[in-house]
Design goal:
The chain has about 280 residues and is of the alpha/beta class. It is built from twelve helices and seven strands.
Length: about 280
């Protein structure tokens, strides 16, 4: 079969040619060696068929990754996008997570969900943050989606800019952060008006997943936790996986009721994921 002519079905229902190199790239970014990534891409390439859904390919890659050396950690890193989409239903607010990412990438967060009077109406600003490098105060708008296949579009970019204009002297710059890809219209419009965007796969050198992976800022939901465990840990100040490493496992167990042995196992897995 010539895979270049094999079309797969994306989560939004559109068709796209199977991309052998994309499978390789995502495996390598999750921590697999190039040799392992190539083996997995070859295996997947032989198993796919016309009109196969990308969700099926995703499961095939996950299964293949789990069989390799350090497979558990690599498998969880590969699930980054899915783990972010688990946050909302588990009661983990995306704005809180974004604020932690900003704090680790050159910003000082002043407040979350702050209500400010604009020239015309009152606004609730998701995040107010000062960029330490240029001393500009940013109005940060967070757009979160918990379903695959959704693209953050031009309406969200326009909405963010309109709020920024109404807030006038309160802010020097605007930032739109989303956990999905953005449309080409967003990229074009944002570039034209000077709106900063952080999204999935954009910009190339500072996209959401790159900021997370390069600094080990994986959300708590990247770990194999039940919804109840996520809520218990989250309400005990553990928002990112690496937060588990900052606290005594016995104390975490006492505060949450989660067995200490379970906490220690999660800490071991976290060390593997962020290494």
């Amino acid at each position: 079969m010539n895979n270049k002519n094999t079309y797969v079905i994306k989560s939004d229902g559109s068709r796209t040619p199977f991309d052998y190199h994309k499978v390789m790239r995502t495996c390598v970014r999750a921590g697999a060696s190039r040799k392992t990534a190539r083996m997995i891409a070859n295996r997947i390439s032989k198993q796919i068929h016309p009109e196969i859904r990308t969700s099926e390919i995703y499961k095939m890659v996950l299964k293949a990754l789990s069989l390799g050396e350090d497979g558990q950690a690599v498998r969880h890193r590969y699930r980054l996008k899915e783990s972010i989409m688990r946050m909302g239903p588990a009661g983990f607010l995306f704005e809180d997570y974004v604020s932690r990412i900003l704090e680790n990438t050159g910003y000082k967060v002043d407040s979350l969900r702050l209500k400010i009077d604009g020239r015309c109406v009152r606004h609730e600003v998701d995040i107010s943050a000062l960029h330490i490098g240029d001393n500009k105060r940013y109005m940060v708008e967070c757009k979160y989606h918990n379903m695959a296949g959704i693209v953050t579009g031009i309406k969200d970019s326009l909405y963010t800019h309109a709020r920024f204009l109404d807030l006038g002297p309160n802010f020097d710059a605007e930032l739109l952060v989303t956990n999905t890809k953005v449309s080409q219209d967003v990229i074009t419009y944002a570039g034209c008006i000077g709106q900063k965007v952080i999204s999935w796969r954009f910009p190339a050198d500072g996209s959401l997943e790159r900021l997370i992976e390069s600094r080990g800022l994986y959300p708590l939901t990247i770990l194999p936790l039940s919804k109840k465990e996520i809520v218990l840990l989250y309400h005990n100040g553990i928002e990112m996986a690496k937060d588990l490493l900052l606290k005594n496992p016995q104390q975490i167990s006492m505060n949450t009721g989660i067995p200490e042995r379970r906490i220690r196992n999660l800490q071991d897995l976290t060390r593997q994921i962020i290494s």
